[in-house]
Amino acid sequence: MDYVDCGGRRLAYCKLDGKGPTVVFFPGFMSDMEGAKALALEALCRERGQAYVRFDYSGHGKSSGDFSDGTIGAWADDGLAIMDQVTEGPLVLVGSSMGGWIGLLCALARPERVQGYVGLAAAPDFTRDLCWNRYSDEVKATLKRDGVYYEACDYGDDPYPMTLNLLQEGDNHLLLDGGIDLICPVRLIQGMRDPDVPPVTAQRISDALASEDVVITYVKNGDHRLSTDADLKRLCRVVKEISGELS
To answer: How many angstroms separate the CA atoms of 5 and 59, rounded?
Structure first.
């Protein structure tokens, strides 16, 4: 594990040297680079001799910073710091949940380097569409009064802080209302039983994309995490396909 600096934040990452294109994995909200998907992709790339990078956003995992200080813009800057300082040449970006949003923002910032994009339960605009717009008046009042609301976690963890700053700053990076000017091949994988990201989100992403090479895979019994053995094998097949011939 190594670190890079991004605006005074120390970002932890793990890099596997190999042939291009380099696969970069963007974790989800409150997730880190030690998850099943991140490690499955590392095993795939090691087997193929393909370069690979996984990392932690600031306030996550082994990177510095407090989670409650994070914003979509800051985490996108983290992703760009990893791309710019740790990788060379063409890239395949793989984003899970919030990482799907961050990955799209990074792809739009470096389109000349992005050979392909893979989104798993990708959740662009979630701060507005899946949080603020769904919150009760009571929760919104708490956010406006205290600047933070502690949201219950469905995955057995402690309640996590959702800050007003995160929600408001996210409005600066919304993608689904306009066009997403990305023309590389895109593969979207979405569980039909995802309790967090509505399956229609994948279609909304496809509709917004400029790319004509977009394939959506719906997983009938797939949940949000998409981390079963079958899910991981599917992910690896898609990343291998979109990577093409290594060089």
So the answer is: 14
Four-way CATH pick for 2-125+174-243: 3.40.50.1820, 3.40.630.30, 2.30.40.10, 3.30.1020.10: 3.40.50.1820
97 catalytic, yes or no? yes
Q: In Å, what is the CA distance from 98 to each residue of 16, 76, 102, 119, 247?
A: 24, 10, 6, 10, 30
Are the C-beta atoms of residues 136 and 64 closer than 8 Å to each other? no
The more confident residue out of 247 and 57 is 57
Q: Answer whether 0.90 is exceeded by the pTM.
A: yes
84, HSE (Cβ side, Cα atoms, 13 Å): 14
Q: Is residue 56 annotated as a catalytic residue, yes or no?
A: no
Active site annotation includes 173: no
Catalytic annotation, pick one of 125, 194, 196, 231? 194
